[in-house]
Fold this sequence. Notes:
Distance between the termini: 37 Å
Mean pLDDT: 95
Shape: globular
Structural class: alpha+beta
Strand order of the largest sheet: 1-2-3-4-5-7-6
Low-confidence stretches: none
Strand content: 25-35%
CATH architecture: 3-Layer(aba) Sandwich
Order of helices and strands: EHHEEEHEHEE
CATH class: Alpha Beta
Largest sheet: 7 strands, mixed
Number of domains: 1
Helix content: 25-40%
Amino acid sequence: MNPNLPLTPQIREATPQDLEAILEIINHAIVQTTAVYDYRPRTMEFQQAWLAKKHADGLPVLVAEQNNHVVGFGSYGIFRPWDGYRYSAEHSIYVAHDVRGQGIGKKLMEGLIEKAKAQQFHTLIAGIDADNRISYEFHLKYGFVEVGRFREVGHKFDRWLDLVFMQLML
């Protein structure tokens, strides 16, 4: 095997030891992209509380580990906080900027879909910045369809942003 080729990412449940890498990945997305409509980098305390809440709620946080490094993560949560939405989950997947295009997102998506089906969710929902064609097309490959487009609901980097909702029926 060629040692210069990246290994197939291994997908597993996140542990508190993964939070430093998760924090680095999400903060890069916050500071450098419109993938997250947030302005300020997150703190370790925020990520610790986030992971603890996911675990307490029985919701997955998956990490992709490649060459002994966490290079991506994905999770989902209930779409809206009312009982009638308990079968609808909104997911997120983030891959480290320097390893995108290597199939890491694919493995995370497959893991999240499998977990959502096992937990008897009825649908997965994605909120995607309308200019993020890569994410949009990625979701299409998994059978997601566009179900809504909200004009100028986000504001970041001194411009208005449109948000697209895509949905996969499980």
